[in-house]
């Protein structure tokens, strides 16, 4: 349970132009500029393909300038509906590899693959390559992927080997990978911030470490901890599931390192995913009383059981007994388990309908759990463990 996270950042290559070429292959082989026809002289470039980019054409460039750089290019207006359609198809492919997906825009997403590497021999690159190739061969568009232990490093890495490339930053090598990259590669460092950083001799990401937190707070005006964390290869943000954006449900599941029917071991794993799910509920100020426990057996069949609790909560101790009962109902004689998951549905915000339990100190319990969450956020999730998750 002390495994380091492995996060992919998947960035579609020249997405609008690639979608147009997939729909109309005759557009391939020449500079393609999506944004307007040659009659749309007041338009700007929405998306150039890579042949157009080789001519110096960039997004948001006036279309008239793009015509000068690529007079032989194909100039088209965007086709309504195809980009969202392709984005949905890409996301459907993502779900074949992991349920832990955080979409960032129509053409990029984070995928947490920490718990799904078993079928790839623990090889993150192998999974990323399979994902990239399936998108290419299924949809006729390409993507570039960054792999690392955190979001910001993976996002920077995904730009490193475009188009149709993979950059794998091994655990512990994040700072080494980032050190010699230009500081403008950091997400959020725009022209104004870059100019200010350059003024103080900060050109590479490693240069950020020349100064302390106080300097950035007083001189740069950009959040100091963010810059310094990036320079040290640190980013503790979790991947937030797509379904969580819809505020309807929240889930967590883990693929076990080996198939087993060992009940004490399985109950520890169950409590672990319950802790993670409840921690995320608290972070979002949600509560629920609709609990589902899910299992995947060794033969890849799936089953689940649900129960409505008596009260809303986001504390794992309130759901543990019910989760064990549901899990025991799912255990089948002679069938080993390969995946355990929990899901909370019908989420409400904490201030909507919390019912106080008169037989316990509600405030004291909530303070305890919130303090534990703070400690885990600052250091590491596994810095605090409950007795139910210990190996005996």
Name the CATH architecture of one domain: 2-Layer Sandwich
Specify the helix fraction band.
Answer: 25-40%
Report the β-strand fraction as a percent range.
15-25%
- CATH fold-level label of one domain: Dna Ligase, domain 1
User: Going across the major beta sheet, what is the strand order?
Assistant: 5-6-1-7-8
Write the CATH homologous superfamily of one domain: DNA polymerase, Y-family, little finger domain
Q: Secondary-structure element sequence? A: EHEEHHEHEEHEHEHHHHHEHEEHEEH
Output mean pLDDT. 86
Largest sheet features = 5 strands, mixed
Count of alpha/pi helices: 14
Distance between the termini: 15 Å
Give a quick set of tags describing it.
alpha+beta; DNA polymerase, domain 1; Dna Ligase, domain 1; five-stranded mixed β-sheet; five-stranded antiparallel β-sheet; 13 strands; globular; disordered C terminus
